[in-house]
């Protein structure tokens, strides 16, 4: 029987025991992630084989552009979230972001280098408005204290992983059979499908009054004679060529410089805040920063799946008759779908028996698993055939292990940031948490440049590249295992710093 003090919010239209709006957001996000991951699966291979095919440093150039794109995609969510909270509201932000992303995906289908960088910039700006707001919208469907909220988010995140699983398989197949631009075009259709689902939900009024601008007066307020609701989309579009220029200037790598400055500024500001806190709050905030740092490190290794690991799959994994290199990007989402519920039940069982490990131990184990996954790839060379091709099993096992590591770390990290941060800077720390993914892509770029193969040969691979990749994976394994060991070693101290936060 439900506690009478707990709301179940029955006034909105319901479906399967949840607000009906959840399922419209589920499909909108599924199709948006379909477009995002479908495009990402092709991106590195497309740059290596088309955009930079004429230069020997094509791997290095691809690494810089991929890292810059990934960093800006995640950093844009911090700005888009703020604009939504203060001016646009979630509905307008999701529409604006979705339209920009859809245009970006369709522009990718144009065979032109300038169009390529403009397309990436459109996706960066669009993602900033779309991604943070659709997740927040899910939370807004439930009243405070609604016991269904956690399971609602579980359903929603399943949509993310279904999109992430199906997209590389379909877009990868289209790209291999008919050409890159058909794969990119399908990603664009996926984005449009997501927008149509969202729009149909609004038309059927399944969201009630949720997601509207925080203040109609501010929404309509004129700046330089233009209402803010119109001015923001104009400014967003004007930023597209600026971001396209930053992405195309891969030799100067301006984006890396920008993120070094942002990182220094954030750390300096956190240091200033810590100085003004009492001892207990200071310890908790320090732990929030540490958790963010270790999560950044994990994502830095994990996100190599879209760059170096895809190139390794293309050049050194025997995939004939199984899948294409771009389709291997589906393996992580596949394992998340399979493992999410069993691992969730495991934590529940351990909690019931008072054995559930605290956050630092989960983070340490997650990093150890990341290290183990790359160790598997590093030893794959011993099983290579005479052409330098290793069995697909190594890649499969690697993705299984790192997916377990992801489930150990990712679901708990975000909630701990809100628990450990002083109430007056929770929003700022959430921004820092999202920025951690942006900084992770800087790690991806650095590693990818170190493992870049210099060649203009479109068919480079086999014995020519095997040693470069396996030696690199061995080094990554050592760093990840070392980081995991350090976290486990200092976990008793971290537990004390966290105080009453589990």
Q: Helices, strands, pairings?
A:
Elements: E1 14-15, E2 18-19, H1 21-51, H2 58-88, H3 90-108, H4 113-140, H5 149-178, H6 180-203, H7 216-220, E3 222-223, E4 226-227, H8 228-248, H9 254-276, H10 279-302, H11 308-316, H12 330-352, H13 359-378, H14 392-420, H15 426-450, H16 463-489, H17 491-498
Helix pairs in contact: 1-2, 1-4, 1-5, 1-6, 2-3, 2-4, 2-8, 2-15, 3-4, 3-6, 4-8, 5-6, 5-12, 9-15, 10-13, 10-14, 10-15, 11-16, 12-14, 13-14, 13-16, 13-17
Your description of this structure?
The protein has 502 residues and is an all-alpha fold. The chain is 75% helix and 2% strand. It is built from 17 helices and four strands. The strands form two sheets. A two-stranded antiparallel ribbon has the order 1-2. Strands 3-4 form a two-stranded antiparallel ribbon. Strand 3 and strand 4 form a beta hairpin. Helix 1 runs antiparallel to helix 6 (180-203), helix 5 packs antiparallel against helix 12 and helix 10 (279-302) runs antiparallel to helix 14 (392-420).
């Amino acid at each position: 029987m439900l506690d009478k003090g707990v709301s179940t919010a029955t006034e909105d239209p319901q479906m399967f025991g949840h607000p009906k709006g959840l399922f419209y957001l589920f499909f909108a996000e599924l199709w948006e992630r379909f477009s995002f991951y479908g495009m990402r699966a092709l991106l590195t291979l497309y740059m290596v084989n088309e955009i930079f095919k004429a230069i020997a440093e094509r791997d290095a150039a691809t690494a810089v552009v991929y890292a810059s794109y990934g960093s800006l995609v995640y950093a844009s969510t911090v700005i888009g979230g703020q604009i939504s909270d203060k001016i646009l509201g979630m509905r307008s932000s999701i529409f604006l972001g979705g339209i920009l992303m859809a245009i970006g995906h369709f522009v990718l289908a144009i065979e032109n280098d300038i169009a390529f960088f403009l397309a990436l910039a459109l996706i960066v700006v669009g993602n900033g408005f779309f991604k943070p707001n659709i997740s927040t919208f899910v939370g807004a469907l439930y009243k405070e204290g609604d016991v269904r909220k956690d399971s609602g988010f579980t359903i929603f995140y399943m949509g993310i992983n279904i999109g992430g699983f199906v997209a590389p398989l379909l877009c990868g197949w289209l790209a291999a059979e008919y050409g890159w631009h058909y794969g990119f075009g399908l990603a664009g259709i996926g984005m449009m499908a997501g927008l149509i689902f969202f729009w149909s939900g609004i038309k059927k009024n399944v969201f009630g009054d949720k997601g509207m601008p925080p203040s109609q007066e501010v929404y309509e307020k004129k700046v330089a004679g233009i209402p803010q609701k119109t001015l923001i989309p104009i400014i967003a579009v004007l930023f597209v060529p600026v971001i396209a220029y930053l992405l195309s200037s891969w030799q100067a790598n301006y984006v890396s410089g920008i993120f070094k400055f942002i990182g220094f500024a954030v750390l300096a500001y956190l240091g200033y805040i810590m100085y003004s806190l009492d001892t207990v709050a200071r310890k908790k905030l320090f732990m929030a920063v540490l958790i963010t740092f270790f999560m950044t490190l994990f994502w830095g290794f994990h996100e190599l799946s879209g760059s170096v690991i895809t190139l390794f799959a293309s050049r050194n994994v025997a995939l004939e008759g199984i899948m294409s290199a771009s389709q291997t990007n589906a393996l992580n989402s596949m394992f998340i779908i399979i493992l999410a519920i069993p691992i969730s039940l495991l934590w529940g069982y351990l909690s019931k028996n008072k054995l559930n490990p605290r956050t630092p131990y989960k983070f340490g184990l997650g990093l150890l698993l990341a290290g183990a996954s790359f160790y598997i790839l590093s030893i794959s060379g011993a099983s290579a055939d005479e052409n330098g091709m290793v069995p697909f099993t190594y890649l499969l096992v690697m993705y299984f292990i790192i997916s377990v590591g992801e489930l150990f770390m990712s679901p708990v990290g975000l909630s701990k940031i809100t628990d450990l941060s002083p109430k007056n800077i929770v929003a700022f720390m959430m921004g820092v948490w999202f920025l951690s993914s942006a900084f992770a892509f800087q790690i991806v770029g650095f590693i990818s440049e170190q493992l870049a193969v210099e060649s203009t040969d479109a068919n480079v691979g086999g014995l020519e590249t095997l040693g470069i990749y396996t030696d690199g994976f061995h080094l990554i394994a050592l760093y990840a295992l070392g980081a995991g060991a350090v976290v486990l070693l200092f976990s008793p101290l971290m537990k004390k710093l966290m105080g009453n936060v589990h």
